[in-house]
Amino acid sequence: MTRALVVGAVAVAAAIAVAAATIASWWWLVAGVPLVALALVGVYDLTQRRHSVLRNYPILGHARYLLESIRPEIQQYFIERDTDGRPFDRDVRSIVYERAKGTEDESPFGTELDVYAEGYESFVPSMAPVAEPGEHPRVRVGGPGCTRPYDMALLNVSAMSFGSLSANAILALNKGAAEGGFAHDTGEGGLSEYHLRHGGDLIWEIGTGYFGCRTADGGFDEPEFADKAAHDAVKCVSLKLSQGAKPGLGGVLPGGKVNAEIARVRDVPRGRTVVSPPYHRVFSTPRELVGFIGRLRELAGGKPTGFKLCVGSRAQFLAVCKAMRAEDVTPDFIVVDGAEGGTGAAPLEFVDHVGMPLTEGLITVHNALVGTGLRDRIRLGASGKVATGSDIVKRMIQGADYTNAARAMMFAVGCIQAQRCHTNRCPVGVTTQDPARARALDVTDKSARVRRFQHATVRSATQIMAAMGVQHPGDLRPHMLRRRVGPTRVCSYAELYNWLGPDELLAQPPADWASDWRRADPDRFDI
Questions:
Q1: Which of 167, 358, 334, 347 is nearest to 251 (CA)?
Q2: Would the N or C end of the chain have less CB density within 10 A of its end CB?
Q3: Residue 76 has pLDDT above 60, yes or no
Q4: Distances (CA, A) of 74 to 60, 64, 71, 78, 429
């Protein structure tokens, strides 16, 4: 309503100026012409569907695009910096925007990175590159206990809940996933009709609050879960143990966002702040966790079931591996979330100091599964600042089978990192439950951007692999990724990390794993 009043006020002022010019003096046209132009711009801004900022802030919103057009001084500061003030390796947000809009162009004049800086990473191109595959590779997810496996894309929408995101943002993400043939993780906020309307493939995430399958006292409701998991759109079920932004800390949805609809989807009281517990009530040991995963798969009718975590203790994860072997029950997939990732709000101390970064966490989980003879039964997903084709290839070299992206997908639907998510006043309608603000996000336009971004990014990954002489992700090896570790020294990942062989932990654990292997107890997490 406010935006319409602003445009209306400008139009009225324009009409008065034009009338005064006709009746009194032509000098009134000095004010009348600009006011008429502004009124026409305002009407256009309200009716166009490509720019959410302009739909919410007619006329005034053009100032943002004016600033972004001044390169590199303004844009370099505002766009090339992450939300915590640390610089990206490259202008990632601009890459996402360009791919989402279908306007990506090749850059002249070489790299903008310092290739001699410590930590610089590069792939090893082949002297005999191969052709790109005709179709983008997919990964079959489904272990021995799964009767309804799913073919996962190399890049999917990571967990973001309805409630944290607006209905239109969820609709755009899901419609883009449906059109592009990739999966959409619901986040822990429950299964809403916005996840189901367009028929995109869903990974239903169950968090510690059991939202959407929750009893009155906050426990897990088996009949409700089984009923919803039977929906054809639900392809996989993911149990969230922890997330990268705040491992060991539950999520928070402010009461101002908990309207009647969200309360119904989450099975919680309307208007009250929703706090997810930091721990699950239905299990307390590795063995019980594994048993619960198996039970979820049964209730879901044999659909792939797994869990997501930000890795902390190697010994604790080895305890889960021991429990898997003891019970002969394995998840169909595990998603490793890096401590550097996460779109959720979190205390700065958690963001900066709790949990393993994705590289260490992913390699730890991959090695643990290989060393315990379980890797061929379990697929690994990776999430944590995945935004480009090079990110996908790097994570697959480090052990992942596929990747998920949250922040990049938010950029694709129009997020400008205003960092007003918690206020319910998102200027582009992505993270708000205010209907007037959310309507600015046009589902048709933004879903096409999501689809284009995912397709272009996966194609970038396949191009990089083809340049390395590889057509299938399964042929990527640690020696194909190198890191500069000093002014005159570059090492491959095969040299930087100790990669375990199949069943090595069962036969003779190497010295640097032996202590953690001995401590790992399938009946205890507190080790």
A1: 347
A2: N
A3: no
A4: 18, 11, 6, 6, 24
Residue 304: other Cβ atoms inside 10 A = 26
Q: What pLDDT, in 10s, does the model give residues 350-372?
A: 666 777 999 999 999 999 999 99
Question: What backbone torsions phi and psi does residue 334 show, to the nearest 5 degrees?
Answer: -135, 130
Q: What is the reported pLDDT for 339?
A: 82
Residues 343/405, Cβ–Cβ less than 8 Å: no
Domains of the chain: 2-74 (no CATH), 138-517 (3.20.20.70)
Contacts of 80 (CB under 8 A, 6+ apart): 87, 88, 90, 91, 93
Distance CA 196, CA 198 (A): 6
Nearby residues of 362 by Cβ (< 8 Å), 6 or more positions away: 336, 338, 380, 382, 395, 398, 399, 400
DSSP SS3 for 272: coil
What pLDDT score was predicted for residue 3? 62
Question: For 127-140, what is each residue's pLDDT tens digit?
Answer: 999 999 999 999 99
SS3 track for 118-171: CCCEEECCCCCCCCCCCCCCEEEECCCCCCCCEEEECEEECCCCECCECHHHHH
At residue 47, the pLDDT reads: 67
Banded pLDDT at 79 (limits 50, 70, 90): very low
pTM for this entry: 0.85
d(CA 425, CA 428): 9
DSSP annotation string for 421-443: GGGT--TTSSS---HHHHTTS-H
Tokens of 296: 């979820």
Residue pair 13/34 in contact (Cβ under 8 Å)? The answer is no
Please tell me the predicted confidence (pLDDT) of residue 59: 66
404 - beta bridge partners? 156, 383
* 464 residue type, one letter: I
Distance of CA 341 to the CA centre of its chain: 8
| CA nearest to 385, candidates 48, 101, 2, 82 | 82
Q: Burial level of 422, CB count in 10 A (0-12/13-18/19+)?
A: middle
Radius of gyration of the CA atoms of the chain, in A: 25
Residues forming a β-bridge with 184: 157, 202
Across the range 101-122, mean pLDDT stands at 80
CB 140 within 8 A of CB 149: yes
